[in-house]
Specification:
It contains seven helices and six strands, in the order αααββββαββααα. The protein is mainly α. It has two domains: 64 residues; 215 residues, f41 fragment of flagellin, N-terminal domain, CATH 1.20.1330.
Amino acid sequence: MRVTSNMLSQNLLSNLEMANNKMDLLQNKLASGQSITKPSDDPVKIETALRYKSTISSMEQWKINASEGLSFMETTEGILSDMTSMLQRVRELTIQGANGTNSISDRSQIANEVDQLTQQFHLTANSQIGSKYVFSGTNIDTEPLSDYPDDIPSPPPAPTEWNGNENRLEFEVGSNLSLPITIKGTDLFGITDNGDGTQSSAFFDTLNKLSTALRDGDTDKINESLGEIDDHIDNVLALRAELGARTNRMEVIYNQTDYSITNLQQNLSDIQDADMAETIMEFQSVQNVYRAALSVGSKIIQPSLVDFMS
């Protein structure tokens, strides 16, 4: 086959175009830092990278939820710890008030302190973390004891309206996995429905009964209140233990999610990130080939008679 100057020119231009395209591709890799710049570069890797990115996005949201849930539960534990301390103080006052040698004035002073603690328990029942009410169940925007009077008499009345519900607020922390982050305020304060649109609180009923018994000097009711207070202490401790177990699980989930995100990000990096040193060397190699082709082409394609006829 006879090779003409035109064929040599076309082959040269074709090879130069291929080298130029290759340099353009390598420049894009160097500029973006990614080995895959468009789906056509590697459809399989692109599909895998998109799947990784979707999974990482979901896991990052789960991690945020787990972190927020941990903060919520740890704050709740602090509230329950304060409740335990206050109940222990109520217990001490009850034992002190049961002493038959107390004068009316002594019992009145003890009752006043019980009343102060009762008011603080009311504030505790309405505790908030941010804008969320801790013990309202899923009614997080509703104050559970909104009917409690501002000017509280002695003894403070037991609440008759509980605006929370028996549900527990849950956060999604994994695929098809939601974990409760609250405890039931109805369990904590012994809320029962009276069937007439009102509710009763065994917790506040005990404190109310204790305050009244102290003022009346009714030793039998004071001792009866002591047993109920012990029950309330046991209940708070049991709820704290339950919350602590869920907190530990949430910590494990948070750590596992964080570890999984790190691994997936590394896998994604292995797929889509360019090896900069290798890419630079390849670019220099292609650039050398391009320059060599230009140099050789200028020597192969010599001027013809046509060039001198113009």
